[in-house]
Amino acid sequence: MDPRYALFIWASYGLSALVVVWNLWSPRRVRNELRQRLSERAEDESERSGEA
């Protein structure tokens, strides 16, 4: 077997693994950032309602 072919196969596996990891990590990161912003907004609103 040609060594370049093996390199191509392993590079394809590696790229596929990166895509799978990205597809698992990216939505979780966005969801966590959204939750953090919403909790900060809720804290700000509760502080404002407590001042009034």
Notes on the structure:
The chain is mainly alpha-helical. The protein has one helix at about 5-50. The mean pLDDT is about 90. Required for the export of heme to the periplasm for the biogenesis of c-type cytochromes. It is a single-pass membrane protein. It is found in: Cell inner membrane. This is Heme exporter protein D. Keywords: Cell inner membrane, Cell membrane, Cytochrome c-type biogenesis, Membrane, Transmembrane, Transmembrane helix, Transport.
Count every beta strand, where a strand is a DSSP E run of 2 or more residues: 0
Helix/strand-derived category reads: mainly alpha
Strand content: under 5%
How far is the first residue's CA from the last residue's CA? Answer: 77 Å
Low-confidence stretches: none
> Could you spell the SSE succession in H and E letters?
H
What is the general shape?
rod-shaped
Radius of gyration: 23 Å
Chain-averaged pLDDT = 92
Count of helical regions: 1
Helix content: over 70%
Largest sheet, if any? Answer: none
Task: Give a quick rundown of the structure.
With 52 residues, the chain is mainly α. 94% of the residues lie in helices and 0% in strands.
Identify the notable features of this structure and list them briefly.
mainly alpha, single chain, transmembrane, transport, cell inner membrane, 1 helix
Write the layout of secondary structure elements.
Layout: H1 3-51
Keywords: Cell inner membrane, Cell membrane, Cytochrome c-type biogenesis, Membrane, Transmembrane, Transmembrane helix, Transport
Function: Required for the export of heme to the periplasm for the biogenesis of c-type cytochromes.
Membrane topology: Single-pass membrane protein
